[in-house]
Structure formats: C-alpha cells, structure tokens
C-alpha cells in the first residue's frame, strides 16, 4: 500500500499591474463589433432601467386587474347560477378567465420592450454623415 499523496497548498495567482493603465470595466450592453464607450454605457444603463420599470409596471397592473376580476367573480353570486357543460360559470371564469389577461399583458410588454430597444438602438448607433 502506497500512501496517498497530499494535496498541494493553494496559491493565489495575480497579474502584475506594473506599467499598465487600468480601464474601468464596462457593464453595459455593447453592440456587436463595437467597443463600448462612455455614452453607450449610459444609454445601456438607461435601457436596463426602462425595461425594469416596464416589467414592474406590467406586473403591478396585471395584479390589480386580476384581483379586480377575482373580486367581481366573488362579489356576483349569480355567476354561479348559469351552468356550462355541467360546470358553474364562476368556476370556468376562475379557471380560464385569467389566460386572456396574461396574453394581453404579455403582448403589451413585448411591444413596449421592443419600442424601448428601438429607442436605444437609435441613440446608441452613430448616424451616417451622408
């Protein structure tokens, strides 16, 4: 039986920074094939903020509308009277009434997000001096 070899000690390896000029790391979204400059970084941060505001606004509006729909269904006991395929109408509205809402809010978000992207591209891409 041979003894197991002991693991080597951990060593931290760092690069030498002598003679180099440090450049800030860009966190923005760079367009393909271009180096991100300061203005583009500002525009991309603005795009991220706009998309976040849009997402939070859509979620908040969806929650309000969905709660209102649930409240209306619960407040109207007469919705339980009509029966469709031996299922009360209020049950069907609870089961399937939210899907059209989800679709509507998804379409609103997708169109607004695409509009935000187009605005960003217009700001970030240089104009051709023709």
TrEMBL record:
Keywords: Membrane, Transmembrane, Transmembrane helix. The chain crosses the membrane at residues 54-76, 96-114. This is Heavy metal transporter.
